[in-house]
Amino acid sequence: MSQIVLLVSGPNLNLLGDREPEVYGTDSLDDHVAAAAAVAERCGLVVEHHQSNDEAVIIDCIQQARRRCAAIIINPGAFTHYSWAIHDALAAFEGPVVELHLSNPNAREPWRHTSVVSPVATGTIVGFGGHGYELAVEAVSRLLAR
Ligand code: DQA
């Protein structure tokens, strides 16, 4: 049976393609999920995607991945910068965690320079736009093959 990679998308990412296209590009979230799923299939993995604007739903989703999913790829949106509850949920997950951002938050407003998720991520992929989704799945595949 294929290992499951949980892909979590945080607030406002449901608007991708329409929202600030000069920052986040014109592809929709469905386009990014499809790209991630295609790479996953080549790697013998399966992507399970959840998007929510609600912090509690994201935390439940991460908790339900424990002992069920092999890895987590998460773009927490603005929760990146202040959700210690998402930090704690990820800390309780036993597998690799990849933090993913379309833009490079470090090159933007100062309040985006802090990530409370990075300390519990195995690694972080930022600034590569939609390509980051494919890179994240490749990174997870390598980590799981170790
Ligand atoms: C983002 C960066 C965050 O700062 C922002 O709040 C987002 C998107 C990104 O993918 O670049 O919603 O996570």
Protein architecture, described:
By secondary structure, the protein is α/β, with parallel strands linked by helices. Helix content is 36%, strand content 19%. It is built from five helices and five strands. The protein has helices at residues 21-24, 29-42, 55-65, 84-91, 131-145, and strands at residues 3-9, 45-51, 71-75, 97-101, 123-126. Strand 3 (71-75), helix 4 (84-91) and strand 4 (97-101) form a beta-alpha-beta unit. Helix 2 (29-42) packs parallel to helix 5. The longest helix is centred in the last third of the chain and has 15 residues, at 131-145. It is globular, with a radius of gyration of 14 Å. The two termini are 18 Å apart. The model has no long low-confidence stretch (mean pLDDT 97). The structure holds 1,3,4-trihydroxy-5-OXO-cyclohexanecarboxylic acid. 1,3,4-trihydroxy-5-OXO-cyclohexanecarboxylic acid binds at residues 12, 75, 77-78, 80, 101-103, 105, 112.
Please give a handful of descriptors for the protein shown.
5 helices; binds 1,3,4-trihydroxy-5-OXO-cyclohexanecarboxylic acid; 146 residues; globular; alpha/beta; 19% strand; 5 strands
Bound molecules: 1,3,4-trihydroxy-5-OXO-cyclohexanecarboxylic acid
Radius of gyration: 14 Å
Listing every helix as H and every strand as E from the N terminus to the C terminus, the arrangement reads EHHEHEHEEH
Note the gap between the termini: 18 Å
Overall body shape: globular
**Helical content (DSSP H or I, runs of 4+):** 25-40%
Strand order in space, largest sheet: 2-1-3-4-5
How much beta, percentage-wise?
A: 15-25%
**Number of strand elements:** 5
| Major β-sheet profile | 5 strands, parallel
Number of DSSP helical runs = 5
| Averaged pLDDT | 97
State the secondary-structure class. alpha/beta
**Parts with pLDDT < 50 across at least 5 consecutive residues:** none
